[in-house]
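Schema walkthrough. Field components (list of strings):
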Amino acid sequence: MSGPWGVRGLSVRYGGRTALVDVSFEVAPRSVAAVVGGDGAGKTSLLRALAGTVQPTAGTVSRPDDRPIGYVSAGSGVWEDLTADENLDFAGRAYGLGAGRLRSRKAALLERTELAAAHDRLAGQLSGGMRQKLALAMALLHEPELLVLDEPTTGVDPVSRVELWRLVAGAAAGGAAVALATTYLDEAERAATVLVLDQGRALLTGTPDEVLAAVPGRVLEAPARPGGIPAWRRGARWRAWSPDGSPLPGATEVAPDLEDAVVVAQLARELGRAA
Amino acid sequence: MWAMAMKELRQMRRDRRTLALMIVQPVVLLVVFGYAASFDVDRVRTVVVGPQAHAVAGQLPERLEVVETRADLGRQDAVEALRDGEAAVGVVTGAAGQQAQVLVDGADLFSARSVVSELRGRPELPDPEVLFNPDLKTSTIMVPGLMGVVLVFVGTIATALGVVRERQSGTLEQLAVMPFRPRDVLLGKLLPYLGVAAVDLAVIVAAGMLLFDVPFVGSPAVFALGALLFLFVTVGAGLLISSVSETQGQAIQLAFLTMLPQILLSGLIFPLQAMAAGVRWIGYLLPLTYFVQLARGVMVKGTPFEALLLPLGMLAVLGLTVLGLSIARFRRDLAPAAPRRHGAAEGAEEAVDAARTRAGAG
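Field assembly_structure (string):
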């Protein structure tokens, strides 16, 4: 089998707490699929179910069975009292790589992650960005068909974020299906498909263009907070949502981005509930 | 200051395990150990052998509780009964008019001391002959038992901390995704601890013999077998503790909670015979009880394998129980998701179609 992989009608409960309700998500080979949401939205539960470390309460999960997946958990999951080299050696042996292949893959990944100079440093002594790159290198070592990354860029400096994205994009270009959770909407815009979670339920799903095209009404921009209409701050200016598309004096219509789409979807859901 | 105290109280209330340890544990410990904390042995198991066995058995002091009277057996049989732990005192009678010999098991220190003190205070009774630990040295019987305590420390605490550290740092989840079978992870995780504990044991035995003149008269192979079984129990207990602990602090608390009863109720310090029956039965459920019997038996008395089947069997049963429970709990961490079925990808395609339809993508 070669994908696509994903979950269908997934629900996850921990004891009495519901983490996910009827969520579906697909990740195709050679692409990055992003799961977006705030804290507690259910991103980690979704990725854990996809990786097989959480038992779904309902729904089906599809992942490769002919080759192990690559997984980076929230918090990296590297062994901090092993060096970068030792971490990679352990992962290589765990995935059954032969000595020759392990040596060549390790050298290539240390080069690509720019960790070659730090190969003999303890993982616990690496910076946050370097540690995440090491975790990603471990997950890529065996060239998995499916790569599951739980917030690999959270808490990482902007330069390291760019480098991590370069590695993620490289893995997708190499044929992997990449499922990635992030709290950064600008990152999600680079993904082929996006799933926005809110309180354990799917709020939006599709390609970034599809999500933006589906924004109802109009998104407006104004220099000051407009009255009588839902509005939110964006930098020094204000964005507002006109559900019926009617204009607002002093405000101009703008093309919504993913952040606007998420805010509008949440507002629309609240309006629907109020009605 | 009050703000700080309120914050601490709130945190304490939410950490219910610590709160229970602080409030319930002292009460339980006081009650249990109150009944256990006694060095006074009132009844000492005694065998009486030799031609006058039946006549002498009825004249012995009340403290000597006769458990077997055999006129057809002799001194060697009495020595073996003491060696194998069947009795702590052996009375060997001779022909009519001849004074009986009293043999005392010096490895059963408190029984021996009470008997020696009683007999030496009564000139009409013979002077006892103390076997195995003739000088009634405390170190001779404490050191073999303390080896068990050290192994509990190494086996239980080190294993529990090692596994909890994996969980806390998120690497246990990483192991669950790697293509390991749960038993590979479990055995791979336990073997180094077993190895270190085995080295530890060898060092402690050597130190006990060199520094405290503790004898080693029995079979090293029987001792090694008992120690190995005991290590499985202690390492399994560590694994079990790790499976119910979220943090290393909780693991240490629980490990100490299992260690204290072992130290106080195993017969290591207070003799089991001196404990109230209910408390003594708690001792019979603890692995250190059997290791203490085994270590003292093999090292000090040269007790053979056949006579140690009970402690060896109990250690095996406890080891299987504790390891079985811990493996069952460990599997939940390492293989939580049911095996995926082939053909599930078709289901995923349908899922994606549904998702696309909802997003208006078609």
